[in-house]
Amino acid sequence: MRRRIASGSAYEDLIGYSRAIVDDDGWVFVSGCTGVDPATMTLADGVEAQCTAALATIAAALGAAGADFDDVVRVRYILPDAADFEVCWPQLRAAFGIARPAATMIVAELIDPKMRIEIEVTARVFKRTRPSPVSPANAGGPKS
Known about the structure:
The structure is a single chain. The chain is an alpha+beta fold. Helix content is about 25%, strand content about 25%. It is built from three helices and six strands. A six-stranded mixed β-sheet has the order 1-2-3-6-4-5, covered by helices on one side. The chain is globular and about 40 Å long. The model is unreliable at about 135-144 (pLDDT under 50).
């Protein structure tokens, strides 16, 4: 079974896609996110602001899926100008520095020439179980 996550972006209905798909085996696929705010459909100015907006959209999608940046296993960065990438590194390191996912940076045109970055992620959430409380009777230490 899979679950669809929407961000409210008009593009989702216009084009026919979901912000994210969550499979019941723990995989989370987040569509490419640009610097467009899904609520207002406004585009941030400059690559750094667009990177911030894209990461916020990704964080919201991951959160709706029960995941976070630490669960990301693959990230793809798409930029029309490779020279814009380095200024985004501090934000990307802050978001992905713990998970250290497999990553690819692609230089390609985006749907709107004002868009400077698009980020797509794949995450994997394993079912987390809580250990049973330890009592003195079953603590597993040496028996007397």
